[in-house]
Amino acid sequence: ERKLGLLSAQYRLSTHTLDRRIVDACAYLDEHVQERFTLRQWAAQAHMSPSHFGYLFNQVLGISPGKYLLEYRMQLAKELLIHTDYPIQEIARRVGYPDQGQFSRAFRNAVDNNPLSYRRHGLRNEGP
User: Fold this and answer.
1) What confidence tens digit (pLDDT) does each residue in 64-102 have?
2) Which of 53, 57, 89, 118 has a 20 to 30 Å separation from 127 between CA atoms?
3) How would you write 54-107 as a 3-class SS string?
4) Among candidates 27, 20, 33, which has minimal Cα distance to 4?
5) Which bin fits 5, alpha (ψ -120 to 50), beta or left (φ > 0)?
6) What angle, 0 to 180 degrees and rounded to 10, lies between the N-to-C axes of helices 50-61 and 65-83?
7) Looking at residue 128, what is its pLDDT?
8) Which helix (H) or strand (E) element contains residue 39?
9) Are 72 and 33 in contact (CB under 8 A)?
């Protein structure tokens, strides 16, 4: 079974209503999250034009591909911050950001907390 990230719960509930190209695009993201790619490249991987890809993605999931990508990367970053001791720079690389500064800004904007504070707070809440 392929991991489908943020799509997994919806995928299990409604496989018959999801467009296979969007499911495959989400699986592609899961497998290539550490890579930098544009919406045009992601759409091409799904064999669609960027405009059709964006339209279909939004129709199927109710979210734009760009927002899905950001939310996916931030969710993965949160998991890595709490469950690993990787340096922030390594987490940035693993979720597709070329440098720690860019990742920290994106994380702060998305989560309203910086990665190090999130890690400290998250670890306190993970105890027995």
Assistant:
1) 999 999 999 999 999 999 999 999 999 999 999 999 999
2) 89
3) HHHHHHHHCCCHHHHHHHHHHHHHHHHHHHCCCCHHHHHHHCCCCCHHHHHHHH
4) 27
5) left
6) 60
7) 43
8) helix 39-45
9) yes
